[in-house]
Write the structure tokens for this entry.
Amino acid sequence: MKILLFFGSLISNISKKPYIHTKCGGPNSRIAFPKVNNLILFSQEDVRFYQSSRRFKKTNLFFIPNRIREIPSDFSRIKKHKVISRLQ
């Protein structure tokens, strides 16, 4: 992971384009996570962790909440589809 951060930062500096890193959940690293200017987080726990860290005081943190919601089932359409599929 550190090598990806290194190359991402290097390319960002050369191309003068911003580099944004994402941390996709999981436990927070016990070893030093490399500093980045922009970090996208997907859990409130990560947001609180990085906000409370002096190391990431100047990091722009972006939070994208869980985007998955329960999809309501339309049982009448399901039943109709099952009937049609049996006839074929």
Remarks:
- The chain has one domain: 2-87.
- Residues 2-87 form one domain.
- The longest strand covers residues 38-41.
- The chain is about 40% helix and 10% strand.
